[in-house]
Amino acid sequence: MILQTKNICLKYGSKEVIKDLNISITKGEIVTIIGPNGCGKSTILKALSRYLKPSRGKILLEDKDIHIIDTKKAAKKIAVLPQVRNVPSDFSVETLVSYGRYPHLGFGNRLKKKDFEIIDWAVKKTGIEHMKDRRVGTLSGGEQQRAWIAMALAQKPEILVLDEPTTFLDISYQLEILELVKELNETLNLTIIMVLHNINQAIRYSHKIYVIKEGKVYSHGDSKSLIHKDLLRKVFHIEADVLEDSTNKCPYYIAQKMTSG
Questions:
Q1: Which strands, in side-by-side order, build the sheet including 78-81?
Q2: How far apart are the first and last CA of the chain?
Q3: What pLDDT is recorded for position 110?
Q4: How far apart are CA 21 and CA 17, in angstroms?
Q5: Which residues contact 199 (CB under 8 A, 6 or more apart)?
Q6: Nearest-CA neighbor of 44 among 56, 57, 54, 36?
Q7: What are the residues facing 241 on neighbouring strands?
Q8: Over the chain (261 residues), what is each successive 10-residue block's mean pLDDT?
Q9: Please, what CATH class does the domain formed by 3-85+157-227 belong to?
Q10: CA–CA separation, 188 and 228 (whole Å)
């Protein structure tokens, strides 16, 4: 396992948000965490990204306690794109992407030829080479998301953590970003961990899904077979019809009405 949790509990102050969580992620997987609002999805990502230390239990990165590993070494392994990101709007795209190289910089923190080559590679890999001189503030939502992913790629990580990467994007940009994530996974063997609200997108673009309910793992398994009507009823409180997406060879759910649970 490249990343796993061992019975972790996560707190904000005295409030326990996540209880005895066990998650295992294999190298090269796309793993998506889903669940109703307030169930602790983003909290789990913060813990996996070292931003939140468990009050109990351990998180292991390649069998080593993630909080014992040197911060710079961990940053070379894991790149994180949180929901809320701030950068001066007059930054160029290329400048933004260059920030991904900082965990690799040595004495003096100066970018070298190799760093600029990796920045160019990340820009090309995400299809934004034509806009690298543009200011971040002039980009559309989808273009900005590509630029941030390019910055994460410039870290040369083994794991990419994405917290709701399609939020605030229209449907065409949602698909564009998820197709990019899929391509990066397939061509770079990049392990992806993400939170999504759209259950059908989670099914289509993931290898494995973890369903969280009230701070615990309710169910987990293969994305194409895990989700069923009873789970949707008990976790999301909806009745749904199931169709077959013949193009992507996966089920597709259409919510029909809310239930009492």
A1: 78-81, 159-163, 191-195, 30-34, 208-213, 216-222
A2: 35
A3: 87
A4: 11
A5: 34, 227, 232, 236, 253
A6: 54
A7: 254
A8: 97 93 97 95 95 96 95 92 80 94 80 95 96 93 93 96 93 96 97 97 98 96 95 95 93 90 54
A9: alpha beta
A10: 32
Phi then psi for 3, rounded to 5 degrees?
A: -150, 135
Task: Count the residues in the chain.
Answer: 261
Q: According to DSSP H, which parts of 49-92 are helical?
A: 71-77
Question: Can you read off the two tokens belonging to residue 190?
Answer: 């990049």
Q: Which amino acid is at 209?
A: I
Report the predicted TM-score, pTM, of the whole model to 2 decimal places. Answer: 0.94
Question: Which helix (H) or strand (E) segment is 33 a member of?
Answer: strand 30-34
Nearest Cα to Cα of residue 238 among 33, 42, 32, 36: 36
CA separation for the pair 261, 259 (Å, rounded):
5
Domain residue extents for the chain: 3-85+157-227
